[in-house]
Amino acid sequence: MNIAEDSLRRLILSSLKKRLLLEAHDGDGQIPAADSLIPPPNDVVKPHEPAKKTQKPKKRRTSTPLPKLESRMSDLHDKPITQPKYTLEEKREMLANLASRLEDCHECGVNPDRNRMVFGDGSLEPKVMFVGEAPGADEDEQGIPFVGRAGKLLTDMIEKGMKISRDETYICNVLKCRPPSNRTPSPEEAAICAKHLERQIEIIRPPAICTLGASSLRYLLSVPVGRSLGSMRGDVHDYRGIPLIATYHPSYLLRDPSKKREAWKDLQLLMRTIGLLK
Ligand code: URA
Predict the structure, then answer these.
(1) Which is the most buried residue in 55, 160, 250, 263, by most CB within 10 A?
(2) pTM (global) more than 0.85
């Protein structure tokens, strides 16, 4: 290669080099650093590959558990009554208002065909309040609690056993309306209606409560389902600061008179609690 050829080759190589450098410029006269020209691997979008959806972690579906039976019962049972003690006149007025509001109440839907709402009966300054389950046929006819066969036995228990007049007590039920065919009220029906019983207790504030049968005991003390009435007898329980004694329902005593002896023990405990017996 002669000198002329060599010079020509150098010229061509140098102009090629310049061209390559110019093509690598980013347009503002700066030469980009080599690594900025290589797209980072994450930015590489392969053709035809659909972008992946970001998947949220799957939540496990859990059904809301129904409240347990006992939690649908009174949630007041361990809360002391905060209302003031009312005068006889105030009690009369408040109870009359409550009763008149319930005259046309069908909130729990237990029996749209019932005849009478059975609110309660007796002294507003009672020696004891008896609480049964729900009115039966006779009560539904007359609008007064415990006036049928079971009612006659209850009256005997009070008058012949405790030696006080039925008029010195107050008698009512958890449900104010008769369930069809006297069936046991469901916990839902009881929970709806029993708020009126709770109000009755707040207004009357009896010195003691005697529950007749399992329904009223279960409701007022929120007794767990597995616990029997038998295991709750014989003790003085507490309902919001009021002593509560449990005994058998008079209807049960009519079916099984051998249990009357046990019921008599309960009445004696009740009498001791309210000062009728030493
Ligand atoms: N049984 C009850 O529980 N209440 C009544 O009033 C009558 C029968």
Answers:
(1) 250
(2) no
